[in-house]
């Protein structure tokens, strides 16, 4: 019993010391600088910023406005057909490995062809069931939100 009490007292002393150290270090820290002071320091003018001056408003664009702006490359508030198709052209250019402006079936199916060759372990030109199973898309399992339900013990 005496050992138990000694353990409890020492644990309480350790917790008390931790709280004391935490509170004393928190009171000696300098206050965080304001965004204005950070901006002035980054500009290097050495002048303290006026805390009473209003901060500039952040842009409040909607997701659709940001998407529109990604397409509107020349910022004329209009999306041309070329601007709209630019991302598709880049994707097409990546597939057109020989740069002739045309996609052959082999260029279009290159990723699939490589996946087949990788799965064909015995290099027979065919996939058996075991080899085919390696081509399945690997998905991470959905996170469990609740622990599995334990069956009730009837012996209790």
From TrEMBL:
Disordered: annotated span: 29-73, 133-156
Instruction: Extract the GO molecular function terms from the UniProt entry.
Output: kinase activity
Extract the CDD domains matched here: EFh
Q: Which Gene3D superfamilies match?
A: EF-hand (1.10.238.10)
Q: Which UniProt keywords apply?
A: Kinase, Transferase
> Would you say which domain of life the source belongs to?
Bacteria
Under the heading PROSITE patterns, the entry gives:
EF_HAND_1 (PS00018), EF_HAND_2 (PS50222)
User: Which part of the chain is the EF-hand domain?
Assistant: 83-118
Q: Where is there biased composition of kind Low complexity?
A: 37-47
Q: Which InterPro entries match?
A: EF-hand-dom_pair, EF_Hand_1_Ca_BS, EF_hand_dom
Q: Has the keyword Transferase been applied to this entry?
A: yes
Protein name listed in UniProt: Histidine kinase
Which species is this UniProt entry from? Sphingomonas floccifaciens
């Amino acid at each position: 019993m005496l050992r138990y009490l000694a353990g409890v007292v020492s644990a309480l002393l350790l917790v008390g010391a931790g709280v004391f150290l935490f509170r004393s270090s928190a009171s000696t820290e300098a206050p965080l600088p304001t965004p204005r002071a950070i901006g002035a320091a980054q500009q290097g003018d050495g002048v303290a910023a006026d805390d009473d001056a209003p901060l500039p408003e952040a842009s409040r664009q909607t997701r659709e406005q940001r998407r529109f702006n990604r397409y509107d490359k020349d910022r004329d508030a209009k999306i041309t057909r070329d601007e709209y198709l630019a991302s598709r052209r880049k994707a097409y250019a990546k597939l057109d490995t020989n740069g002739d402006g045309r996609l052959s079936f082999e260029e279009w199916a290159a990723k699939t062809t490589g996946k087949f060759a990788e799965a064909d372990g015995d290099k027979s030109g065919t996939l058996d069931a075991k080899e085919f199973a390696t081509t399945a898309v690997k998905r991470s399992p959905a996170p469990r939100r609740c622990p599995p339900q334990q069956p009730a013990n009837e012996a209790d």
